[in-house]
Amino acid sequence: MMDRLTSRIAEMASPVVVGLDPTPALVPEWVIMEALEECGATPEGLAESYWRYNKAIVDAVCDIVPAVKPQSAMYEQLGVPGVAVFEKTVKYCHEKGLLVIGDIKRGDIGSTSAAYAAGHLGGFAACGVKVTGFDEDFATVNPYLGTDGIKPFVEVCREHDRALFVLVKTSNPSSGEFQDRLIDGRMLYEWVADKCVEWGEALPGERYDGVGAVVGATYPEVGRKLRERMPKTCFLVPGYGAQGASAKDLGVYFDADGTGAIVNSSRGIIGAWKQEKYAAYGAEHFADAARAAALYMIKDLRENALTKHAGGAV
To answer: How many CA atoms lie within 13 A of 250 on its CB side?
Structure first.
């Protein structure tokens, strides 16, 4: 699956993943009000507005990006109706030819970890009933519990041709409280990186193994070190745009031929209609603003992150 992602990135010349993270602040008021009028002022009505918002954005960007990344918490806060929209969104994205990275950041052990993996990446059968769960192509996972928490995910990925992105060095300001601790001569994130390489060997790929790494764009020097340390690991890179990282920071995350990383933008794309740069689109044409922002990001990465590589980028 990881090789499939990197192939899609190369085919589309687009190392961009769009985060589908709807909130009431990002969904235009007219979308919310229409849904509430039709479905009632209920969680179901608000969830319906999220679905309409997602669908419009997916339709607008599906031909220019290889993948999307819905953050499960944005849906779970609505309860069952929100979870249903998460599932509906994943299915629709697959219908539109997009790969789906489930941003779930799960981390547990034993049967609980196996259940998370089955629910999001594989499925299971019981009493003659086949359950496929949410059926994402990738999931983000938290490695804090060590191999016991990751192994069940790896096993499900091997069985169902799925892949993972493990949190290694995250983009948030306080990540260093734990991740930058020096332990026996190595930063904690370096210990995690080395384990990711080890876990990835159980999911070998042609170019990149099936265990990727989340490495924040806000720490480019760390990105440089980890790129050298993890030659067969694909990076999922959050932090571009809204969190402060620019395309010029990101060249170090890619391999010499411009592969090996996919860069996320969530509110920078799906909330583009609220930015001064795209204000002309207005709330009515929020999806067109999202497409314009995605095209700008693709161009920005090509010109400022990838031009240093041989062949001039993906």
So the answer is: 35
> What pLDDT sits at residue 306?
87
Measure the CA–CA gap between 69 and 22, rounded to whole angstroms: 11
Q: Name the CA dihedral angle for 48, 53, 59, 62, rounded to a multiple of 10 degrees.
A: -110
Distance CA 202, CA 205 (A): 10
Contact between 165 and 193 under an 8 Å Cβ cutoff? The reply is: no
Question: What is the pTM assigned to this prediction?
Answer: 0.94
Catalytic residue among 88, 105, 274, 308: 105
Q: How high is the mean pLDDT of the chain? A: 94
- Give catalytic status of residue 105 as yes or no: yes
CA distance 293 to 7: 23
Summarize pLDDT for 132-186 with one digit per residue, the tens.
Answer: 999 999 999 999 999 999 999 999 999 999 999 999 999 999 999 999 999 999 9
Give phi and psi for 181, each to the nearest 5: -70, 135
Q: What residue ranges define each of the domains in the chain, with the CATH number in brackets?
A: 2-312 (3.20.20.70)
- For residue 186, give both structure tokens: 């190595």
What the block records as the tokens of 221 is 């020097």
